[in-house]
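Re: beginner question about structure tokens

> Can someone show what the tokenized structure looks like for a real chain? I only ever see the sequence side.

Sure, here's an example I had lying around. Input first:
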Amino acid sequence: MELDTIENQDYYVQCWFEAEAMRGQFEYFTKDYRVSLVPFRGDCSVSIKWELAKNLENIYVKYEKPIKILYFGDCDKKGYQILKAALKDSRRIGNS
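And the corresponding structure tokens:
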């Protein structure tokens, strides 16, 4: 019998979402998949972005596979800004 593990997947997948209040919905829809959930609570602080970057770095070292991030936020200006800022700062921190 072969279990479905992260080692057998092509990618490591994280689901980022803007509102902590939606955690239950994301848990419900991802329960059958190997997906890490990362709620934001709106704009992330620099320390949270640092933790995101270091977490992604550790995941890559551990699994040595591409990381896919699925982001769900409000379809408004702020929703796009939150994602853009999180990616920009996490990449900058990860490269330092």
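Each token stands for a local structural state, so reading them left to right follows the chain. The first strand starts at residue 12 and ends at 17.
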